[in-house]
Structures are given as C-alpha cells and as structure tokens.
Amino acid sequence: MRDAVIVGAVRTPVGRRNGGLSGVHPADLAAEALAALVTRAGLDPALVDDVIMGCVSQVGEQSWNIARNAVLAAGWPEHVPGTSIDRQCGSSQQALHFAAATVISGQADVIVAAGVEGMSRVPMGSSVSQGVGAPYGEKVRVRYADVEGVAVDQPIPFNQGVGAEMLAARWGLDRTTLDTFALESHARAAAAADRGDFDAEIVPVAGVKADEGIRRDSTVEKLAGLKTPFKADGVISAGNASQISDGAAALLVTTSEKAAELGLTPWARVHTAVVVGSDPVVMLDGPIPATRKLLARAGLTIGDIGAYEVNEAFAPVPLGWLKETGADPARMNPNGGAIALGHPLGASGARLTTTLLHHMRANGIRYGLQTMCEGGGMANATIFENLGPA
C-alpha cells in the first residue's frame, strides 16, 4: 500500500511587517523556499509532479496563481505545474493534506506542499470584496443575524478578534494569563534561536537569516498597557495575538517506494490527517474537535504524542485547546509559536510542519501533532510519525 512521506522541509525566516522581507515579491519569496527544498534534498526539480501552495490573499502580487509564478521564479522546468489554494490560515497545512492524498492515490509520485504570504505588500483583507452582502451574501447574513457578536452591516460579519474574546470568556482566561502565555512564547522562541534550533530549517533571504518577531525585552507590565481593540474592557491585544508577517515554507512529499528509488531519506510519515468545520462566529475553537477526530481516526491518545504545534492565532486558542484535551503544556509549541515567530497566513501551516519535524528529529520524538484554527470556522489537524533520527 502506498504511503505519504516527507523527505524535506524548509522555510524562510519569518519577517516582521515592513521588515527585512518586505522588499521581496511574494512569488520570489516562495521561490527561495522551493529552490532550497530541492537543493537540500538533492532532487532534480524536473521530477516534481506538482506544487500545491497555500496563500490567503490571492490578489495583487499574490494573484494569478502564485504557485505557478513561484515555480517559474525558482527557475524550475516549465513543465512543472502549480496550483494555489485557500483554506485561510490552514492553507498550506491543507496543501500538505492534498499532497499526501495525491501521492497515496497514485496520481503523482512527487509533490511539493508549500505556502507563502507577503503581508507587508499584500495586506490582510486585500482580497475581500466590498459592498452590501460581500463576500458572504444575504443568506449567510440572515442565518446569523440574531447571533451575538455578528455585525451583519459589515462586509465581513464575523470577526476573529471578537471570537478570541469569546474564547477567553468561555475558559475564564484573564488578561494576565494571556499576556504571561505570550511572554512564554517569546522566551521559548528566543531560547530555540539561541540554541540554533532553527538554523537547519531556515534558508536566508535578502540578508535576513533569523526570525524578526522575537521580543526579548517585553514584560507583563508592558503588555498590560496595550489596547484591546475588539472589546473596550477586553483581554485580547496585539501583544497576545499572532504577528502580521512575511514568509514562505515548503515540504517535499513522496512515497516510501519512490523515496528509495530516488535515494531520498524519509523524515516522517503523514500518519493521519483531518479537517473539520466549527462555529463561524467564534471561529477559533475548531482545533479541539479536529484533534479529537484526528486521535480517534489514528487510534492514538494525546499522551502518545510527543510534541504539538497549535497555532497561536490568539493566546486563548492554544490555552483553550490545552484545557479541553488535557495535553502536556511543556510539549506544546516547545520552540514558541506565532505570537513570537509571526503568522504569515498562507505559509503558517507549512512553517509549523517544518519546525515540528525538525524538533521531532532532533529529539527522537515518534509522534507529532499539528492543528490550527482557520477563518470561517474550520481547522486542520495532522499527525506525523518520525521515521528516523536526524
């Protein structure tokens, strides 16, 4: 039976908004990840059957199928195709799911699952159409017209920040708890960077060699002074939410049989993959049912998992996930998360996988789990099985 294995994983540094990567066209940024991926794996890019690339704001410089443009920018043969997909924040995690399914089904042998987002150049929300009803239409607005937290008179009636406030209230998470978690994310990321844990996964771009969002000098007192834009007396601020960022990441997916034929060393198997829908108003609690579905399908328990990457869109997301799953906090986002490292929307799924796989290989962890909330109320979740040491 065919399987899906990952034989390489790289990412660019994650750049701060208007930082060191802001001068790089998103297609060129993605091309850097693609080129580094095949170079490090020792694979002729002519053997790639397809590139599936996540990107959320597919407008402007990220329009006209950025996956195809990135393939051409990387200098790969013209016969290598590419397609761009949008499952909001989970776009490149979904790209990996599609890549795995494609090679398992026998439709292809070698797929690149990737993601990119240049949020400095293509701001979040750029692709949202304007006008009454857009982009949801009248039927969605009528369905949720009487639901608290829905602004039916706005182009986007659902708001992730409002949803984060709802999650914080649901689990009784106060401002100090959220800000303390944010500081821990920065501390873990700083420690990982200082140890050199990210070095093997990062390809330098435009002179940027390291993630730009890590803050080493923040305090709870500093974070407490930030505004709460989603609720006057709220708890969600820029300090305990993910950073607006630029970045790209890429994963090389094939089968065990094809890897052996090509002389490639499998890093990990895509053990189990699921996606779920959740309440679009709260929007951010999907990782909880996704994790339950994933573990049930895999025949594993949360205790079997040695490391988890739960995307830190807002601090209540991973904290609520911990409360509901009973997972070990020490195993979650061990090298920091999006609060410290940033969240380049379409790239984040592949970035999390890249970081998780390098961590698993370096520490001899058999199973790793990744999940993330997504706009519109969805969540992807994936279990990886380590196939050998680094």
Automatic annotation (TrEMBL):
Q: Keyword Membrane on this protein?
A: no
Q: What InterPro entries does the annotation carry? A: Thiolase (IPR002155), Thiolase-like (IPR016039), Thiolase_C (IPR020617), Thiolase_CS (IPR020613), Thiolase_N (IPR020616)
Q: Does the keyword Acyltransferase apply?
A: yes
One Pfam family assigned to this protein is Thiolase_N
Species this protein is from: Phytomonospora endophytica
* Catalytic residues (positions): 89, 343, 373
- What family is this? Belongs to the thiolase-like superfamily. Thiolase family.
Stated name of the protein: Acetyl-CoA acyltransferase
> What are the protein's GO molecular function terms?
acetyl-CoA C-acyltransferase activity
Q: What class of enzyme is it?
A: transferase
The catalytic activity of this protein is classed by the Enzyme Commission as: 2.3.1.16
Which residue numbers delimit the Thiolase N-terminal domain? 5-256
All residue ranges annotated as the Thiolase C-terminal domain in the record:
265-385
Q: Which UniProt keywords apply?
A: Acyltransferase, Transferase
> From what superkingdom does this record's organism come?
Bacteria
